[in-house]
Amino acid sequence: MRYSVTAGGKRLRSVLCLASADAVGGLRELAMPAACALELIHTYSLIHDDLPAMDDDTMRRGRPTLHVVSGEGIAILAGDGLLTEAFALLARAPQTTDAVMIARKLRVVGRIAAAAGPIGMVGGQAIDLHSSVSGPDGRDTFPLDTDSLRVMHAKKTGALIRVSAVAGAIMGGADDGTVEHIDAAAAELGLAFQIVDDILDVEGVSAHLGKTAGKDVAAGKPTYPALYGLESARRMAAECLERAESAFHAANLPESRLLQIGRWIVQRSN
Ligand code: GRG
């Protein structure tokens, strides 16, 4: 667990969570347990995604993947441990007897569980696997069209990014309307992140990415550059940022770190 969590990574989900708490005028320390729990869940998903039964990768965060170093059994257990520990952390911190804070914590637990589980990340990963791997019964794969690709990404990577901003806003004490505007904006940032990740997979160098570049193309996976071309994919990411900006305006948060993070996500592909 420690090997993978301390390997680095951009900490995007944690930073989004803390920036969101800041943006709504909340105390950052109240959002810190959720920020850490989100990183634990994200790291678990990467460990399991890299397993031979899934994406089968040997390099992650600039290091050999966990199953290469410690074996598949330990990699599966490390992922299970990180996921479970994330919810233990959400339950125990911040420690409080205040009814308002307990209610915030419960909402955050429910939303993170939904985002990480079968209607979110796990479901998206299942769609991805089903579309790219023949089943044990030898049945053919089904290729994703552009709409299904969007839904798959919204669940697989978008849901956790989205809930990161939402969790920070809830722990920071935002009202329901603000939380929903932040949710809408973060959905756009999640899509932009995926589009940019696809662009970097085409253009990036493994040493810079910390993972194997060019894998999606080699595997014949439908990606945004493959479906729309590089320039259109870049434009689509920029349009996501514009829509996110409108949602932040609607939330009365026109200039916050959240928007700066959005700009950073999109600029990575330029
Ligand atoms: C195994 C249930 C289960 C889910 C796995 C997130 C995921 C689902 C798979 C990751 C596959 C992948 C490489 C998707 C592209 C976008 C993405 C999530 C990249 C990794 O996130 P970063 O770039 O990683 O934020 P760091 O290492 O910086 O934290």
Description:
This protein is globular. A two-stranded antiparallel ribbon has the order 1-2. 71% of the residues lie in helices and 1% in strands. The chain contains 14 helices and two strands. The protein has 270 residues and is mostly helical. Bound molecules: geranylgeranyl diphosphate. Geranylgeranyl diphosphate binds at residues 9-10, 12, 42, 45-46, 48-49, 61, 121-122, 125, 156-157, 194, 197.
Ordered list of secondary-structure elements with their pairings:
Layout (H helix, E strand, L loop, with lengths): L1 H4 L6 H12 L4 H22 L9 E2 L2 E2 L1 H5 L1 H21 L6 H18 L4 H12 L13 H26 L4 H28 L2 H4 L5 H4 L5 H5 L1 H21 L6 H11 L3
Antiparallel strand pairs: 1-2
Helix pairs in contact: 2-3, 2-8, 3-5, 3-8, 6-8, 7-8, 8-9, 9-13, 13-14
The protein binds geranylgeranyl diphosphate.
Quick structural gist:
With 270 residues, the chain is mostly helical. Helix content is 71%, strand content 1%. 43% of the residues are buried.
Largest sheet composition: 2 strands, antiparallel
> Largest beta sheet: what is the strand line-up?
1-2
Unreliable residue runs: none
The overall strand count is 2
Number of helices: 14
* Gross geometry: globular
Q: Strand share of the residues? A: under 5%
Structural class: mainly alpha
Element-level helix/strand string = HHHEEHHHHHHHHHHH
Give me the Rg, rounded.
18 Å
- Average residue-wise pLDDT: 93
Fraction of helical residues: over 70%
Distance between the termini: 34 Å
Bound ligands: geranylgeranyl diphosphate
